[in-house]
Amino acid sequence: MTTQAFARSLAFTLAILFSGTAVSLSAEAWKEAEAGGAKIYTDANGMTLYTYDKDSNGVSNCYDACATNWPPLPAAADAQPQGDWTIVERTDGSRMWAYEGKPVYTFARDQKPGDTTGDGVNDVWHIVKAD
Fold it and tell me: Measuring CA to CA, which residue among 101, 106, 116, 28 is closest to residue 67?
């Protein structure tokens, strides 16, 4: 095998390896679960995901104390949109996941996987449903 052929083969192998890694990183950021008989989305640790009515499509409006109480679901620097899941660029330069255009968050007061205490808070926070 020539050096040039080896280099092409190696580049192709690495491209496949890294493209699979980006997809797996995306898929590991959230998962489907069940709560109260409904299918919902959680983060990789099983913590319930929520949307915020004051956000707009592709725009997060939850910063400072809001983001302390409602941590955004972070997206890795190399994460790629996948199906209904997209990425929102925050004003602080970080990236977060959005479902159907709505940025998603966990709730700091949820203590364990499966908790849904953030649903309905101030009539503006809602569980992300997978149905």
Answer: 106
